[in-house]
Sequence to fold (215 residues):
Amino acid sequence: MDFPQPIILASASPRRQAFLQTLNIPFAVHTADIDETPRPNEAPRDLVRRLSRQKVEAVAAHYPKALVIGADTIVVLDDAILGKPASPAEARRMLLALKGKSHHVFSAISVCFPQQGHIRTALSDTVVTMRPYTGAEIAAYIATGDSLDKAGAYAIQHAGFSPVAAIAGCYAGVMGFPLKTLREIWPELNPAPASMARQCAAFTGRPCCLTQKIA
Fold:
């Protein structure tokens, strides 16, 4: 696959990098150092859109001729934003709060197109329902260290914990990089939607929501 300009991913997330690698997109990584503090009365949807856009803006300033991709993901329970836990104790509190309940995972993607000189941003909203896991399962999962760098203190794809009972929306969006949303704002992206859906499903082990759009 040939691209007319360099591609920069404004994220250190191994999962986002792996998604782009799955699509055979050549890219370099340049992380963005921005203040992610919510503004007063800022709605979660607005926050995640703004942060993804600011990450792109910060990195694009260093690469004016590159296509820059940025993303941000937040977990929202009853209008409360659950970010990355600062400690195992906070991770435990988050997981207990989520247990057996449904919540939203918002993932925003922004892309800066140097030729047009503008940034496109789109949002993925997935409703996630957690299973009634036990306190012992929480403790075992936290002991792996995986929860500390995840919004909401969990990874949907963690085979040892498997905290999720059901989802409505984009599975890849819960992992932090909704390919359907990327396709919406970057329609010139190859491969074709059907091929992209197959690659997404092979990577996540779940049916891709792009398949529904194709059907």
